Amino acid sequence: MSKTTNWTIGIHPVTTLLERNPEVVELVQLQAGRNDKRVQAVRDLLLGKGIQIEEVDKALMDRQHGGVHQGVAARHSVSKQITDEKALLASLAELDHPPFILVLDSITDPHNLGACLRTADAAGVDAVIVPKDNSASMNATVSKVASGAAETVSLVTVTNLARCIQALRDQGLWVVGTSDDAEIGLYQQDLTGPLVLVMGSEGDGLRRLTREHCDFLVSIPMAGVLSSLNVSVAAGICLFEAVRQRQGAK
Fold it and tell me: What pLDDT score does 1 carry?
């Protein structure tokens, strides 16, 4: 597994990181002169952890982190995560449960990626896969929206998404893609066992090659006027239907 360094910003995401994985945190920046209760709670959490604290001017933090940091930022390693396709495929045999993978095809909005990571964490997803091109990548915005999930869910970036999906199929995983025009409804599809769930962009859906590498296509039943959902909302619906079925299967 490769070792990389990332920034997590915002009071809640940094607090979550410090509570769950303090050993990966190298440095915490705190806005100089800010001593309100929320920032003080972060200071208290840092006591005795041996983590370097750096008091930083607000203007500098704004430039470095985009002005959405809430006076708190943490630099940390993500070496515990699976970050490449080869490591992901090797890790599947080590799991003590059927693999549960989320693929996001052409999701370019970092807010959507962050929201999907947060939902994936809640659903117990083993890894989230995105293509290298035409996709949002991990950054401070993604990390903040994910509210700590960016540090717990492995985000795997692959150069060829269709080839990666085929490799997962070759290892015995079933691939279920979502499409508005699919004849099978989400709630009629078996989502137990080794599973790859593939979500496309809200506007264009799955790309042709991605679609062709799916074993099944399903649609989310829609009763209203709108024909599609935000991808993070759709991912939540699909992931937790899979969770429901998988818990029932146990």
Answer: 42
pTM above 0.70, yes or no: yes
Cα distance between residue 171 and residue 94, in whole Å: 13
Instruction: Report the alpha-carbon distance of residue 126 to residue 149 in Å, rounded.
Output: 12
Q: How far apart are the first and last CA of the chain?
A: 31
Between 3.30.1330.30, 3.40.50.12370, 3.30.160.250, 3.40.50.300, what CATH number should domain 5-77 receive?
A: 3.30.1330.30
Q: How far is CA 4 from CA 29, 71, 82, in A?
A: 19, 23, 11
Tell me the CATH number for domain 85-249.
Answer: 3.40.1280.10
Distance CA(54)–CA(52), nearest Å, equals 7
User: Nearest Cα to 4, choosing from 84, 64, 67?
Assistant: 84
pLDDT above 60: residue 3: no
